[in-house]
Amino acid sequence: MDDSTPAMTPDATRDADRTTREPVVVVDHVNKHFGDLHVLKDINLTVGKGDVVVVLGPSGSGKSTLCRTINRLETFESGQILIDGQPLPEEGKALAQLRADVGMVFQSFNLFAHKTILQNVTLGPIKARGQNKAAAEKRALELLERVGVAQQKDKYPAQLSGGQQQRVAIARSLAMDPKVMLFDEPTSALDPEMINEVLDVMTSLAKSGMTMIVVTHEMGFARRAADRVVFMADGEIVEQNTPEEFFTNAQSSRAKDFLSKIL
Ligand code: ADP
Ligand code: MG
């Protein structure tokens, strides 16, 4: 190994915000306030191509705000965010392109109630990507097949279970060929028996090489699918580590306290 190649020792992988892969998302010294509340405090996070980063932390620690800031649903005061090397656009066409590149799945499914499942998935590619209807439908059917709801294609969202709707929401995001997928507590609003069907889709997406940032309380998913766990508290990234290290050997008192309450 020549000197320019960093050694992949356990300590190197443990290093904060380090990834060995080509960066897709770079959050660089980002600060954000809501009035007097300093909700993101000097956040640094690099997510490489194919990385699966699970964000954990107590309620109110800034996890959703971080996701929304990466997608420019929120503004921020200082620092910078790069997606595939490009700074976040403020508005206009470039912002629409960014929203297509950064897929987001929320706790609530946010499907269009008056469109069929198939239309929900084809709408973005036709409107924002300029795809023709036939090509968009072909791709949508492949994606609905992949998430296991192809048979529901002509139904309306209200006719589907919560788990099915969330899988459609994932397919809808994937139809835009995003560079990264953000998930903000995608299973929190689901009945318990539907959680696994959504986590299974996310796990297979992770295995397929999708770059993912996932806020979740599902520790099984974090252990199984995450390359890295990022622990947030009070607007800060307190520590990040491999899931094995984080769950067995958390460093900070805030992480230990958090884990003692949930495990
Ligand atoms: P988490 O997702 O980790 O639970 P959030 O990012 O939702 O945390 O919230 C972080 C903090 O910012 C909380 O104290 C919350 O009350 C506050 N907050 C979130 N959104 C807003 C908003 N739109 N206006 C004012 N305060 C907000
Ligand atoms: Mg949240």
Automatic annotation (TrEMBL):
UniProt EC number: 7.4.2.1
This protein's UniProt keywords: Amino-acid transport, ATP-binding, Cell membrane, Membrane, Nucleotide-binding, Transport
Bias kind Low complexity: ranges: 1-11
Residues covered by the ABC transporter domain: 25-259
Reaction(s) catalysed by this chain's protein: a polar amino acid(out) + ATP + H2O = a polar amino acid(in) + ADP + phosphate + H(+)
One cellular-component annotation, GO: plasma membrane
Subcellular location: Cell membrane
Enzyme's top EC category: translocase
Residue ranges of the region described as Disordered: 1-20
GO molecular function, one term: ATP hydrolysis activity
Membrane topology classification: Peripheral membrane protein
InterPro entries (UniProt xref): AAA+_ATPase (IPR003593), ABC_ATPase_HisP-typ (IPR030679), ABC_transporter-like_ATP-bd (IPR003439), ABC_transporter-like_CS (IPR017871), MetN_ABC_transporter-like (IPR050086), P-loop_NTPase (IPR027417)
Region forming the signal peptide: none
UniProt cross-references to PROSITE patterns, sorted A to Z: ABC_TRANSPORTER_1 (PS00211), ABC_TRANSPORTER_2 (PS50893)
Stored PANTHER family: AMINO ACID IMPORT ATP-BINDING PROTEIN, GLUTAMATE_ASPARTATE IMPORT ATP-BINDING PROTEIN GLTL
Family in the record: Belongs to the ABC transporter superfamily.
Protein name: ABC-type polar-amino-acid transporter
The organism's taxonomic lineage, starting at the top: Bacteria, Bacillati, Actinomycetota, Actinomycetes, Micrococcales
